[in-house]
Amino acid sequence: MKIAILSRNPNLYSTRRLVEAGVQRGHEVQVIDTLRAYMNIASHKPQIHYRGRALEGFDAVIPRIGASVTFYGCAVLRQFEMMGVFPLNESVAISRSRDKLRSLQLLSRKGIGLPVTGFAHSPDDVPDLIRMVGGAPLVIKVLEGTQGIGVVLCETEKAAESVIEAFMGLKQDIMVQEYIQEAGGADIRCFVVGDKVIAAMKRQAKPGEFRSNLHRGGSASLIKITPEERSTAIRAARVMGLNVAGVDILRSNHGPLVMEVNSSPGLEGIESTTGKDIAGLVIEYLEKNACPGATRTRGKG
Ligand code: ADP
Fold this sequence. Notes:
Keywords: ATP-binding, Ligase, Magnesium, Manganese, Metal-binding, Nucleotide-binding, Protein biosynthesis. In the C-terminal section; belongs to the RimK family. One of its GO terms (cellular component) is cytoplasm. The protein is an alpha+beta fold and 301 residues long. It has 3 domains: 2-95, Rossmann fold, CATH 3.40.50.20; 117-179, ATP-grasp fold, A domain (Dna Ligase, domain 1, 2-Layer Sandwich), CATH 3.30.1490; 182-286, D-amino Acid Aminotransferase, Chain A, domain 1 (2-Layer Sandwich). It has helices spanning 13-24, 70-82, 91-98, 100-109, 126-132, 157-169, 227-240, 268-274, 278-289; strands at 2-6, 28-32, 37-40, 47-50, 53-54, 60-63, 86-87, 117-118, 138-142, 151-154, 174-178, 186-193, 196-204, 219-222, 244-252, 255-262.
């Protein structure tokens, strides 16, 4: 197979590992800087050019599109789809997953367990919004945040009101969420490929912190997940339309709650924690599924 990897940086661990695994399994792999790919949209024959030449003959494309380039990255990916190239994850599914609120709405529609979450525009509605999600303690999240930045725990309703008002004053969209205290500062990252959880790890926040992000000093360890957690992760990825996803789950007293479904899950933490060849399993998925024109949406929508 000829595989394209859309990535801004060939030196990132995940990109490097995907190249390595692809080559090891006998494929031709090219890393394409997402922002340097350009397209001819008017043409009947959709094309992508890169450094002065047309990209041709690809069987599959692996999008590793960072949050800050979602818009342009999804346009490039959509162009690949229109050319009949099989995407590991489709552009529509990636756009969907990048909108935290839209993702939660889609997941809730399918009955997947979620922390109770509220969203409002006007500061006048804040007191009732807080009541709606069950009062303090509360977690407030900036919608565009990543790696735990913009996620705040408010122990009292007064604190929550002030923080919400401050974010609203800064014109930041936020959501307000029930705090899952019993999770004990831990969450579970389930790495889904196709209809399987191929690896899982527990991330534990450092003492005095409730955010378990590795970027915030959290530590990762092996964990055995329950059948319910496994099926929740698989269903969440399917609802989002993602073939490959990192599903973050909180263990609550009333079962697994999905916090987020990530469409470009990192490989470093999960490979080093589990010792598994995740990159190889991702390439294997493409070997089994990438046939020309098999894209569900072919760039529509
Ligand atoms: P980001 O996408 O920026 O990583 P998250 O929504 O994943 O933001 O939150 C960061 C971390 O904060 C999570 O990994 C989890 O440990 C903790 N956390 C988030 N929401 C809750 C919640 N409702 N209850 C308990 N802990 C939470």
